[in-house]
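thread from #wetlab-drylab

HS: before we spend reagent money on co-crystallization trials with protoporphyrin IX containing FE, can we at least see a predicted complex? here's what I'd submit
DV: go for it
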Amino acid sequence: MSRPMVLRSPRRGSLRDDLALGGRITAMRLGGLAFALRGDPVARLMHKPWRLDPYPTYAAIRATGGLARSRVGISAVGTHALCEQVLRDRRFGVRLADGRPPFAPEDTETKRSGARPSEPETSLLEPVDLSLLGLDAPDHTRLRRLAAPAFAPRRLEQYRGVAEQITTGLLDDAARRGRFDLVTDLAAPLPITVIARLLGIPTVDADRFARWGRALATALDGVRSVAHAHELARTTAEARVLFTELVERRRADPGEDVVSQFVGALDAGQMSLDELVTLAQLLLVAGFETTTNLVGNAVRALQATPGQWEALVADPSLAAGAVEETLRYDPPVQLTARIAHEDTELAGAEFRRDWGVLVLVAAAGRDPEAHPDPDRFDLRREQTTPHLAFSGGAHYCLGAALARLEGEVALRLLAQRMPGLRAAGRVVPKTATILRGPRTFPVAA
Ligand code: HEM
């Protein structure tokens, strides 16, 4: 059965909405900064200068038992055991207990079990619908089952050759110049080209696609300003047009790409067009900046820790180990969040229904109870406790195998082709709270 190709537009804000939003953002930022200055660890994770190096704050949270209560309206957990517990506990979800999204106004209609979302759920505070990441069961379970086969590790192996070919081309260009930027010349174009291939995006749209990916990734940290909210709403609207056209094209001329596979589910009435389009958009957001940061953080740690880059050059088969160690030591996604669906207890403290908790997976990676000598980067480390960099439980990263594959290819070829690689200027970090990695990283081959 084929469904009508109709998409509804995200809700538009009026001037009154803009003023209210602007006031709310300013109040939240100023309030948060005041708490950060007074030592509130959760507020510190959201504000400079503390968020540029969050690891001392994570250590402070672990030192007080791993649960931080905060005045900013959300708590945080920072030990491996507590993070894993929250991620796996079915009493925690990503929506409010009644099924509304976290920032929904009180009067928003509840989406209950079995009711299929037919309309993008965006507001100015949450202008990007993050598909699976913003859904609880049963919608999450249904959509994830439909999406998962396309990400089976065996199926993704076909992208190894693609990743090698792209990386070789990028390194050829970089080698000719001698000095280049690790992020803009390798770590960013590799994943964006792979996702474009995966989704079957035509080459002509690749630049626009990369720009959207970067813009939408900023939504993960929340809306910074009214202008930011409008930029995100505009980007989402543009991306939806491209993905809708893509669905039409794949329907007429199916290929091996992921969108062609999803069109089957759309035509069988198992997912709506809105769901397909937001899922494709999530793949763009989830698979781009994250993998860019993985490569950037890995090279940074390998170069900053004596002997590590040399060890990789001597034995490039250690690249997979370097990827795992980076994911533990300095993960691209530092934290995620969950909401209690009922009154509950965590680490001896009471948690009210609808209370939020940040799950600091980066703090879990430095927990000495889980990882001996955790502040030491060692690409040969035996990962006795699996890290939580790809989360855990129902929302475990769907693209983990692809991210590992791309990271391994990038590091292995880099070590083989450029054994004398060295930093050639100041590394400028991104300033986000959730996604961590270098913005620019000048290097010489
Ligand atoms: C190093 C790179 C990556 C890291 C560190 C990473 C990390 C994560 C994390 C932490 C989550 C779960 C968030 C939560 O529990 O709330 C997640 C979910 C997800 N990731 Fe990744 N990711 C990476 C790469 C990718 C790639 C390459 C793709 C696909 C192209 C991808 C697709 C997804 C999807 C679809 C989800 C949502 C799963 C769900 O909600 O059921 N990720 N990722």
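DV: The CA atoms of residues 391 and 397 lie 6 Å apart.
HS: ok that's useful, forwarding to the group
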